[in-house]
Amino acid sequence: MTGTGSSLKAVGFLLLAVLINSLQNIAVKWIGGNYSIFEMLTFRSLVALPLTLLFFRLEGGRGLPFTRQPKREIVRGAFLFLSYATYMMGLVALPLADVESIRFSGPLMITLLSVRLLGEKVELPRWLALVVGFLGVLLIVKPGSTAFNLGSVFILVSIFFYALTVILTRKLQTTDSSPTMAFYGALVYVGAIFIFAPLAAAVGAIPHAAPSLAFLFHAWSVPTPLDLLVMCGLGLVWAGWMYFVTRAYSAAPASVVAPFEYASLPINILWGLVLWHSFPAWSTLAGAALTLLSGLFILYRGQRQGKIEGPEPIKVSG
């Protein structure tokens, strides 16, 4: 296949992955207010864990995945768990477009933490891009205004833990394959649920709590057959996303594929219009534009220097 043909195929796989992943957002917003976040995470993780073994087998692995860096795998899994849990908490409280717009700050956070934790050098143009990107985040979040929503804080916390995950992934990828990291990430999910779920249950429901906190402390209940199917489907969505992202980043360089991650915004705007009849505020769109442009600039500068400053989804899956 020609280079152009491979690139088009890779972009198609990536867009399909983004579309599949948007189904997760719909599912969490649709039923998230009726169940505990830990209940949803339990069913999601119980489906995802055996799928990681399937991926391991498909790459030629035998037995159980083995790691030479178990402590880092556990810490990475904990960061993934905290990132996904806080993401879900923000998702139940915010419009889909706002969530995706704030998530655009992921490459900015990764760049900042890479400077602090990895000692990477960032030249002046990328510092300016970081400033512009975070101004965009402020436009979306609107701290101190009446439009401020606590859910945006949880999305930012989610991005912070995601960035830490990416940095740990860079250290782990020299010894551990993507399926191995996915397996240990899913295993830590299950362990974290057993630790945090009883603590949340001990606190109990908080009257008149913000949607994000109500989701965290919601009592467990027997799901309807359809809702149970949706919760288990979150694990299948993760598997589909991981498969197509793998195909995308295997078929073309990350510098070609990564910018199309930003297609998540129009897709989620469309879902918001169709399902909830909501359209993002102009301040959200303006903030998203600033954050998107700064992220693309950082990606471009990283590509010119021989490294991509941005998410590498298949390597951080868990």
Q: How is the topology of this model organized?
A:
Layout: H1 3-31, H2 37-58, H3 70-91, H4 96-103, H5 106-118, H6 124-141, H7 150-172, H8 178-203, H9 211-217, H10 225-251, H11 254-257, H12 264-276, H13 282-304
Helix pairs in contact: 1-10, 1-12, 2-8, 2-10, 3-7, 3-8, 3-9, 4-7, 4-12, 4-13, 5-7, 5-13, 6-13
Short description:
By secondary structure, this protein is mostly helical. The protein has helices at residues 3-31, 37-58, 70-91, 96-103, 106-118, 124-141, 150-172, 178-203, 211-217, 225-251, 254-257, 264-276, 282-304.
- The tally of beta strands, per DSSP, is 0
Instruction: Give the low-confidence spans.
Output: 308-317
Helix content: over 70%
Q: How much is the radius of gyration in Å?
A: 19 Å
**Biggest sheet statistics:** none
Walk me through what this model shows:
It is a single chain. This protein has 318 residues and is mainly α. It is 74% helix and 0% strand. The protein has 13 helices and no strands. The longest helix has 29 residues. The chain is globular.
What descriptive keywords fit this protein?
318 residues, mainly alpha, 74% helix, globular
